[in-house]
């Protein structure tokens, strides 16, 4: 798809996961059917209210931002064929990443696959094979057992992250830290952009 529904795009700093701290051009696509109750961008769910922008134009804007790294997020970006967008970003020497729940097969050659599975909708098998980074949002202690089940399915090379759900971060952080200290294969992912008020 050359035309994609775009909620917003902006140049910022990646705030979470493996690429934390990196200059990043974010492309947030509209549309999601996963339905996370704690989603902090529920306004992205309805794709029909957002304008469609061509992949060529998005890549041009990203290049003009001076960013060398682009994050395709949502919503659920893998709902769409991202082949054209990925190809256009690569043509401009921009390293691409996707943040996805893994519910849909990925269409397009993306450089970095951040897999953030959700209990609300089962991921497809491909997501476990493609994941460079497994990022599990932790809202309850029971999520830790679920995270371990997800970690068993990814490749040994996949980076493992536990991320405290933001609205309950004070309640959750202490025992997540304790868990990681006892299970050092995991790292903690914090939404540093929220701490620093970075858009």
Low-confidence stretches: none
Q: Considering the protein shown, what is the CATH homologous superfamily?
A: Aldolase class I
Output the radius of gyration.
Answer: 16 Å
First CA to last CA: what distance? 28 Å
Task: Report the CATH C-level class.
Answer: Alpha Beta
Oligomerization: single chain
Q: How are the strands ordered across the major sheet?
A: 3-1-2-4-5-6-7-8-9
Write the layout of secondary structure elements.
Elements: E1 3-13, E2 23-29, E3 52-54, H1 55-64, E4 69-73, H2 83-91, E5 95-100, E6 112-115, H3 125-130, E7 133-138, H4 142-151, E8 159-164, H5 169-182, E9 187-188, H6 192-195
Parallel strand pairs: 2-4, 4-5, 5-6, 6-7, 7-8, 8-9
Antiparallel strand pairs: 1-2, 1-3
Helix pairs in contact: 1-2
Summarize the structure.
The chain is an alpha/beta fold.
Task: Explain what the structure shows.
With 199 residues, the protein is α/β, with parallel strands linked by helices. The protein has one domain: Aldolase class I (TIM Barrel, Alpha-Beta Barrel). It has helices at 55-64, 83-91, 125-130, 142-151, 169-182, 192-195, and strands spanning 3-13, 23-29, 52-54, 69-73, 95-100, 112-115, 133-138, 159-164, 187-188. Helix 2 links the parallel strand 4 and strand 5 (95-100). Helix 1 runs parallel beside helix 2 (83-91). The protein starts with a strand and ends with a helix.
Throw out a few tags for this protein.
single chain, 199 residues, alpha/beta, TIM Barrel, nine-stranded mixed β-sheet
């Amino acid at each position: 798809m050359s035309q994609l529904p775009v909620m917003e795009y902006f140049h910022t700093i990646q705030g979470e996961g493996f690429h934390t701290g990196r200059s990043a051009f974010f492309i947030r696509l509209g549309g999601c059917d996963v339905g996370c109750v704690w989603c902090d961008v529920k306004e992205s769910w309805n794709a029909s209210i957002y304008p469609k922008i061509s992949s060529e134009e998005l890549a041009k804007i990203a290049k003009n931002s001076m960013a060398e790294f682009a994050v395709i997020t949502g919503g659920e970006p893998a709902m769409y064929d991202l082949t054209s967008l990925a190809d256009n970003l690569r043509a401009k020497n921009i390293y691409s990443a996707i943040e996805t729940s893994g519910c849909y097969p990925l269409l397009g050659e993306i450089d970095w696959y951040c897999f953030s599975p959700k209990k609300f909708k089962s991921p497809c098998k491909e997501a476990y094979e493609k994941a460079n980074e497994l990022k599990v949002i932790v809202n309850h202690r029971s999520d830790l057992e679920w995270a371990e089940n997800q970690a068993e399915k990814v490749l040994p090379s996949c980076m493992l992250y536990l991320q405290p759900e933001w609205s309950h971060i004070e309640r959750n952080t202490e025992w997540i830290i304790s868990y990681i200290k006892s299970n050092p294969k995991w790292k903690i992912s914090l939404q540093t952009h929220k701490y620093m008020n970075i858009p």
